[in-house]
Design goal:
This protein has 316 residues and is an alpha/beta fold. Helix content is 42%, strand content 22%.
Length: 316
């Protein structure tokens, strides 16, 4: 038995007639009559008897209808709860933050989400990318913001939010500033080949192997640029910037990692051309977030991050 079958039997009982019930159910009278006969044969007992042209439930039929009506009420409650769920976010909304320096933008993201979705509690989870994927797959987190270009495993899906290009932080007075230019999109940029004459440093927390290959192998091989690690300050952008300023050097990383550089008096220049395509992705479990709220959640998150990581691009 299924819900549709129960609804048919309950409607026949309410109408007392197959003809009237068929009109209520928008099916033909012969079809409903055949359906009732098939159900009684399957169950092994009669559900109705006829009295003065009216169908009356048998003793078996009364038992059937008692439980069928309970189930129909529960089914309607279930559908109503699904309708509600499809148009509101879960609370707490568990957000995995595992992009570079994710703690720096969490406050802005939390404020944006709470303004867009009043009453929703935001719960941040800071873990590594592999652990984030495990939490999402297990349904223990709702979405993550991560630096990656990799396609996540099912049932996870990833949506592009913004580029995270390679940049160099250049201290005031550094000769590299004279070779910077403004690209077609209005960003302060520097040609990769112009880094050869500079002392280049990178932070040593490049966890992803693809990034390590780029900085330690492809950059030297293709552009002749040697980059050194700053081990002791690898986990603190401020310390790394202070160290390279003392050395009259430049610091290379992604834009998200070095967006604070301009507040520290550095110019932030994008490398041209970009060697690796690198993004911030909104990765989520499609079974854990309501479809009715996904577009708004994506819009708010994307606008927040793009505004937060859009520093002024100037040569001054």
């Amino acid at each position: 038995m299924n819900v549709k079958e129960m609804q048919y039997i309950a409607t026949i009982a309410e109408c007392g007639s197959i003809t009237k019930a068929a009109k209520e159910l928008y099916i033909s009278q012969p079809a409903l009559s055949s359906y009732l006969k098939a159900q009684e044969e399957q169950l092994g007992y009669r559900l109705f008897f006829r009295q003065n042209k009216t169908l009356i439930p048998t003793a078996y039929g009364k038992i059937y209808l008692e439980y069928a009506r309970r189930i129909l009420v529960l089914e309607e409650e279930f559908r109503e709860q699904v309708r509600i769920w499809e148009h509101q976010l879960p609370s707490p909304l568990r957000v995995v933050l595992n992009t570079i320096n994710s703690a720096t933008y969490y406050d802005a993201l939390e404020a944006a989400l709470m303004e867009a979705f009043p009453g929703v509690e935001i719960e941040p989870i800071s873990i590594s990318s592999p652990q984030a994927m495990e939490l999402l797959q297990a349904g223990e987190a709702h979405f993550s913001l991560r630096n990656s270009y990799l396609t996540p495993p099912a049932p996870l899906e990833a949506v592009y939010l913004m580029d995270d290009p390679d940049v160099v932080a250049i201290p005031d007075g550094h000769p590299l500033l004279e070779r910077c230019f403004t690209d077609e999109e209005g960003h302060l940029s520097v040609r990769s080949k112009d880094l050869r004459a500079c002392e280049v440093y990178i932070r040593s927390n490049m966890a992803l192997q693809t990034r390590q290959v780029f900085y330690t192998e492809r950059l030297p091989q293709k552009y002749g640029v040697e980059a050194r690690n700053i081990h002791r300050s690898s986990l603190d952008t401020g310390l790394a910037l202070t160290a390279v300023r003392r050395k009259k050097a430049i610091l290379m990383d992604t834009m998200v990692a070095l967006w604070q550089a301009q507040e520290a008096g550095f110019s932030l220049a994008r490398m041209a051309p970009q060697i690796e395509s690198y993004y911030i992705l909104f990765t989520y479990n499609r079974d854990m977030l309501p479809a009715g709220q996904m577009q708004e959640l994506l819009r708010v998150t994307k606008e927040c991050l793009r505004e937060f990581f859009t520093p002024p691009d100037t040569l001054s």
